TrEMBL record:
Domain of life: Bacteria
Broad class of the protein's primary localization: cytoplasm
Binding locations of Mg(2+): E255
Summary of subunit composition and partner proteins: Tetramer of two alpha and two beta subunits.
Subcellular localization, as worded in the UniProt entry: Cytoplasm
Span of domain Aminoacyl-transfer RNA synthetases class-II family profile: 111-354
Enzyme Commission designation: 6.1.1.20
Catalysed reactions listed for this entry: tRNA(Phe) + L-phenylalanine + ATP = L-phenylalanyl-tRNA(Phe) + AMP + diphosphate + H(+)
Protein name (database record): Phenylalanine--tRNA ligase alpha subunit
């Protein structure tokens, strides 16, 4: 009887330490299996008288029942607590936000792919550059008034005897002398996409922005190659319906020089918005409809950027014979072309660099 009492007590203690179903299963085996503790107790009966056996047997059965009941109720408790902590599959999940590239990086990728397809090599050159590559080698000597156009960030660093002051590249055109000197000899077909810096801050300027510079030098290169290449880029990037025009301009490093204009997508290049939009899809045959002036463009055209035929001096300065080779170049703003693309709808360039996730995640 004493054994029964200690068995009961020990079981009770062990049961309180059970926290999982597998543990409970082991305890059940320990006590109630064929060779378990309770059946072992039955072996003691041999030494008892018949009357004693009867009472002892009843007590063992009682103990067995008690243990079975307690195991059972602990099992129920464990199962119900497990159910409570299980996932509630009806709750909405925690959405993980996908990261993405910055919209300007997407534009850069798109631009490089467009030029890669026609054999242009993507290059990048130092962001911290010497005056010589940015100005002197581009036909802009230090006293030339054209240098005033480029309000430049100069670096507080001793001047280099050969290359002058250290600065942040104000334009990607510094890639032109760099590329000519890297290769030593044409043919050159380069697209230089890089960060550029000028101290301006307003709706259409940030102190850091990006430009892409197309540069092509070879034998017998002429304006038709320039126009054809830019036309190809415009159709690929903006869409088949956009047209370009070359407008005479002046740059130190090209002669002749042009500004490239592209037809406005808001007014289809007509310069007017037609009040009766349902009239017809073809803008040119809508001349009788009521119209108002397009506010986005100048008479149907938007400025894309500068270009021209490489000035002979530029070739000469970088060791290429202008009698043998000719070339063209253009320099456009990445943010600018990206914002001009149909459907982008950004009207302030500064939004791109304020890091506001609500703006950036829309692209
Ligand atoms: N570098 C000029 C600028 O930043 C743009 C430019 C104009 C680049 C004419 C060219 C070019 O290559 O031919 O304003």
């Amino acid at each position: 009887m004493k054994d029964l009492k200690t068995t009961r007590e020990k079981f009770q203690v062990k049961l309180t330490s059970i926290v999982s179903l597998p543990q409970l299963e082991l305890l059940k085996l320990e006590y109630l299996s064929r060779n378990g503790i309770v059946n072992e107790l039955l072996k003691d009966m041999k030494s008892l008288s018949i009357d004693e056996r009867k009472i002892y047997g009843q007590q063992i059965n009682k103990l067995k029942d008690e243990i079975a009941k307690q195991l059972d109720s602990t099992q129920k408790k464990l199962i119900s607590s497990l159910n409570q902590s299980k996932y509630d599959v009806t709750l909405p999940g925690n959405m993980r936000k996908n990261g993405s590239l910055h919209v300007v990086s997407y534009a850069i990728e798109e631009i490089s792919k467009i030029f890669e397809k026609i054999g242009f090599i993507r290059m990048s050159y130092p962001e911290v550059e010497w005056d010589w590559y940015s100005f002197e080698a581009l036909n802009m000597p230090s006293n030339h008034p054209a240098r005033d156009d480029f309000e430049t960030f100069y670096i507080d660093h001793p001047e280099n005897k050969e290359f002058g002051k250290m600065l942040l590249t104000p334009h990607t055109s510094s890639g032109q002398p760099r590329e000519m000197m890297r290769l030593g000899k044409p043919p050159i077909r380069m697209i230089n996409i890089a960060k550029t810096y000028r101290p301006n801050w307003d709706v259409s300027h940030t102190p850091m922005f990006h430009q892409f510079e197309g540069f092509c030098v070879d034998k017998k290169i002429n304006i038709t190659h320039l126009k054809g290449t830019i036309n190809y880029f415009v159709k690929e990037f903006f869409g088949e319906n956009r047209e370009i025009r070359l407008r005479p301009f002046h740059f130190q490093f090209t002669e002749p020089s042009f500004e490239i204009d592209i037809t406005c997508d808001i007014c289809d290049g007509t310069g007017y918005i037609f009040k009766d939009e349902l009239q017809t899809k073809n803008a040119k045959s809508r001349s009788f409809a009521e119209k108002i002036k397009c506010k986005l463009c100048k008479q149907g055209w938007l400025e894309l950027g500068g270009s021209g035929m490489v000035h002979p001096n530029i070739l000469k300065f970088s060791g290429i014979n202008p009698d043998e080779y000719t070339g063209w170049a253009f320099g456009f703003g990445v943010e600018r072309v990206m914002m001009m693309k149909t459907g982008v709808g950004l009207n302030d360039i500064r939004l791109l660099y304020e890091g506001d996730i609500r703006v950036l995640e829309q692209f």
